[in-house]
Specification:
It contains six helices and seven strands. By secondary structure, the chain is an alpha/beta fold. Helix 3 runs parallel beside helix 4. The protein is globular and about 45 Å long. GO terms for molecular function: methyltransferase activity. This is Methyltransferase type 11. Keywords: Methyltransferase, Transferase. Pfam families: Methyltransf_25.
C-alpha cells in the first residue's frame, strides 16, 4: 500500500503540527464534543484536537500511519481512538459528531460524493465540518497533493455535495502551505467551515 510505504519512516512526512486552517477554524468553536478525523494519516490534526479538549476518533486506511498517530498522542499526553478503514466503505454514524475534519482528503469523485452525503447526516444539529483540500489549480504548482485533477475539488462541487449544511466560511485561494516535507510551497486550496442547522434533524 502506497500510504504504508509513505508513512513507513520515523519522519512525520506531513509534520506534527496541525493544519493551519484547522487551527484557525477551531479557535472559533466550543472546545468539546466528539470529533471525527477523516484520512487522518500520522495524526497531527487528531492530536491537536485532543489537546483542545475534543474526544477524537481518527480514521485512515494505513495502519502504519495510525500507529504513528498513537505514538504522537502518547508523546503529547493525550488520547485518541483510531480505526483502520477504507473511506470507500466506511460508514459515518448518523447524527453522532460535533465536529468532522477533512484535511487534504483526496478521493475519487464518486467515493467523495458518497462520503460527503454521510458527513452531512453524520453531524449532530449544530455540528460543523472543517475541510481543506487542493483544487485542480494545484497541478500547475506542483507543491503537493495528487497528480490527478479528478481527486481534487472545487467550491462549487462542495456546495452541491454538502447540500444541507450552511457554509460559514467558503473560499478558493492560494496560500503558502508548509506542513511537512510533502506539503511545502505555494498551494491552491479550497476551505470550508459548514454547520448542520439546528432544525436539520430527521
Amino acid at each position: 500500500m502506497i500510504w504504508d510505504q509513505r508513512y513507513g519512516t520515523d519522519e512525520y512526512v506531513y509534520g506534527t503540527e496541525p493544519n493551519e486552517f484547522l487551527r484557525e477554524a477551531v479557535g472559533n468553536l466550543p472546545r468539546q464534543g466528539r470529533a471525527l478525523c477523516l484520512a487522518e494519516g500520522e495524526g497531527r490534526n487528531a492530536v491537536f484536537l485532543a489537546e483542545q479538549g475534543f474526544e477524537v476518533h481518527a480514521v485512515d486506511a494505513s495502519p502504519v500511519g495510525l500507529a504513528k498517530a498513537k505514538r504522537l498522542a502518547v508523546q503529547r499526553g493525550v488520547r485518541i481512538d483510531t480505526e483502520v478503514a477504507d473511506l470507500d466503505v466506511y460508514r459515518i454514524e448518523p447524527e453522532s459528531w460535533h465536529l468532522i475534519v477533512s484535511i487534504f482528503c483526496h478521493l475519487p469523485a464518486p467515493v467523495r460524493r458518497t462520503l460527503h452525503r454521510q458527513v452531512v447526516q453524520g453531524l449532530r444539529p449544530g455540528g460543523r465540518l472543517i475541510l481543506e483540500a487542493y483544487t485542480p489549480a494545484q497541478l500547475a504548482l506542483g507543491t503537493g497533493g495528487p497528480s490527478d485533477a479528478s481527486l481534487m475539488m472545487t467550491l462549487d462541487e462542495l456546495r452541491t455535495e454538502l447540500a444541507g449544511l450552511e457554509f460559514e466560511h467558503a473560499r478558493e485561494y492560494e496560500r503558502e502551505v508548509h506542513e511537512g516535507r510533502l506539503h511545502t510551497g505555494h498551494g491552491a486550496v479550497v476551505q470550508v467551515v459548514a454547520v448542520r442547522p439546528l432544525g436539520n434533524a430527521e
